[in-house]
Structures
1.
Amino acid sequence: MKVLVIGLGGVTNGGKTTLAEKLKKMLPNCDMISQDDFFKPEPEVETDERGFKLYDVLDALYMDEMVKSIRNWMKSPTSSGVLTEEPQNTCDNLKDTEDVYILIVEGFLLYNYEPLNELWNRRYFLTLPYEECKRRRSTRVYQPADTPGYFDGHVWPMYLKYKNELEENASNIALELPTSGVGARGKRSQVAASSAHSFLLCSEHGNHSAVP
């Protein structure tokens, strides 16, 4: 049995969840975990001197629980409830892949937490220009709602901070996937699916099936 863990990280409102859901339909025996499910309750999230809730930092998340959930899936992917039906809208060589279980993990702070970096087989980083990111953010409804100045005062600076850390310290991001422009959505899903398939071919002798 082969196990593949794919990370989809990057900018807020960059389409990570949409891409993860599309890949889940394209890839065989595929399951999904979202980092948003590990946010701490609002009273446990720190507030800064400006009154901003500091959600875009690692301390706002139960990261240990997230790692535990991924490791539990890796130990027993067949009992995770993942559907084993034939993938939709994918190429024939992926449909023929047998005894392979794939977990897609999507979130905005995946690659700045070292225990998670031990788990990835493939990882991708989605980016957006400032103006487009701010526009998309303004169309979303959050609970609690973004306060005036929150995007410029907290969300975007934290994204740049963690992206800079990633660029300085990491060398094995597979690709920065396009998130805007003509055909970007279709292109990024095909690129990620193709890369996943390449990994499966390279690991056909079981080189990547061990669970940490």
Note: The radius of gyration is 18 Å.
2.
Amino acid sequence: MSSDEPGTTPFHSAQASFSKFQRQYQQTLDRWTPHVLQRWLATFGLLALFMLRIVLSQGWYIVCYGLAIYLLNLLLAFLQPKFDPSLEDDLLADEIEEGGDQSVPVLPSQRDDEFRPFVRRLPEWQFWLSATRATLVSLFCTVSEVFDVPVYWPILVVYFCVLFALTMRRQIQHMIKYKYIPFDIGRKARYGGSK
């Protein structure tokens, strides 16, 4: 009779153990959330371990290149605003070209005078989590010989350096043009404190 109960099938027991694992994983991540410096130090430690593995084994350069490109993509998303001002300008220019909506009068506004907080396209937590997961997957890939594709690694290094330089130059020009800084610089305001 107990075998007829829906909770005792192998599928339900596997599902229960998977949901238990998910809860434990989420609890661990929740405990790590306030410890920003320790999280990033652990990630940099994993990256150092990965680089040591690459250098000592003299292989898996394509995995290293893939990780570098992915981390560059994450960094760009971290540095960009969620609401891109260049897209807003393009939409405004298109609306003006098309004649706009004649029934609604458009008032002039000073966009530079209003306070607009910087909201990242990729929050710090997601940046850290994605970078850590990618590093762990890359470390796992260096265990298998399947991912050790023979390539001439200096070309990958030069290509990545050129790609990094061009991408960062474009990003810095975008920051200068639209006058935003993606970092908190200066003293933070304290409200309600004695100092």
Note: The chain has a mean pLDDT of 83.
